[in-house]
Every structure is written in structure tokens, then in C-alpha cells.
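Z., the sequence and structure:
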Amino acid sequence: MVLSMDRWVGKVAVVTGASSGIGAAIAEALVQQDLIVVGIARRVHLIEERSKKLSTTKLHALQADLSREEEIVKAFKWIGENLGPVHILVNSAGVFKGGLLSDDQTEIWKQQFDINVLGLCIATREAVKMMQTNDIQGHIIHINSISGHCVPNCPKTNVYPAAKHAVTALTLTLQQELNQMQSKIKVTSISPGMVASELTVFNKSLTERRRKFFESLPHLKAEDVADCVAYALSTPAHLQVHELTVKPMGELY
């Protein structure tokens, strides 16, 4: 099997949650492969700073709240009108708020489903419509989680595993839907184990005890997940990576 990113050179890739962590690493990796990358996030200034640091005009920062449908739709409309049709979508935006199912606020649960599930669905819908309209053999990549396949036995995971299990189901549902349409659009779920990011060890809202707990666990770097994205995109047109699960050495679940 020959792995190559050549067919994506000069094409438009959208990365949600590109202001930090996994999303930022993916955006940078795709820019280095000569793609035109649009990073979507609320903290748009962080993407602009990264673009300056990379000395590139290929990384575009677009502000949108992934929990608001109208902002997502507006962002994709701007991309289509100003940069061209989307060939790649990486749904990397995510939020984790620890708590107990037996004693937490409905709004906290809603925030996690709005971004981790509904925001992903809306962005995917807009990208797929654009790909179909322009007859593009594109690629949709969901940044999932080990928690989307098994529920970790650790405290205060709250609704996060449920939201990520939804992503697992949505990946297969979209694959089946596109197969029935005889579409050539690929769909991939990438499920990393613990990653050092703002959801875990760099989360400033964590208690000191909780932060030390995360730090004690084996973890991947954001760049490891970006490498997984590049691998999935590099596969031949006839081959689809359905699910790619990666864990740090020593991780048990």
C-alpha cells in the first residue's frame, strides 16, 4: 500500500477546535502538507498567532461557536464563497466537564452534547453537502475517544463517555448512509486514549488533586493524534480506515 498526501495538496481542509491541543496540532500538520486549512474555534486569536508563527498564508482563522448552528452554517458558507469547496473535515472540537451523573447541572450536560455531538453533526452535514454538490471524494474524520468504545472506570467522567459513544455510532451511521448513496466520501473515527490537552492535564479548571491524577496516567501528545489523521488521509482512494484506536504504552483500559 502506497501512502501519499499528494491528492490533497492545495485542497481545503476544515479543522474544528483548532485553537489548541489536538485541533491545533492537526491544523499545523495539514498546513505542512501544503493544504489550505481553515481552523474554526471561538478563540480565533490563538489560530491567528499560530499562523504567524508558521509564517504561512495557508492557515485561516474563522471564529465560530460549535454549539451554535447558525455560526457553523455561516462559517461553511464563508469558506465555500472565499476559499472553495471543502475536501476534508476534521471534527476535533470537544469539551469535557467532570461531574457526577447523580449530582450535576443539566446545563453542563447540555454543553457537552451540543459541542461533542450536535456540533459535529452540523459541521459534518455542511461539509458533506458541499462535497456532494461539487462531486468531491472527500474525507470526514471524527476525533473520537477510547471512551467512545468503553466506559473508563475513573471518577467523574459524567456524560463524556455517552457523548463519545454517540460519535462511534454516528461514524458507522454516516458510512452506511454514504454507501447506500454509492458515495466515495470516506468517514473515519480516530479514538485516542489519554492525550495531554486542555481537556486533561492542561485544564486550568481542574482541582489540584484531579490534575495530579491525570498527570499520573500515561498519555499521548497531540501530535500523535495529528499523525493518525495524516495516516488516514494518506491511504489510497479504495481503502477506508473505519476506526483507528491508539493508546499510550501502559494504558490499561
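Residues 106-133 form the longest helix (28 residues). The radius of gyration is 17 Å.

Let me know what you think.
H.
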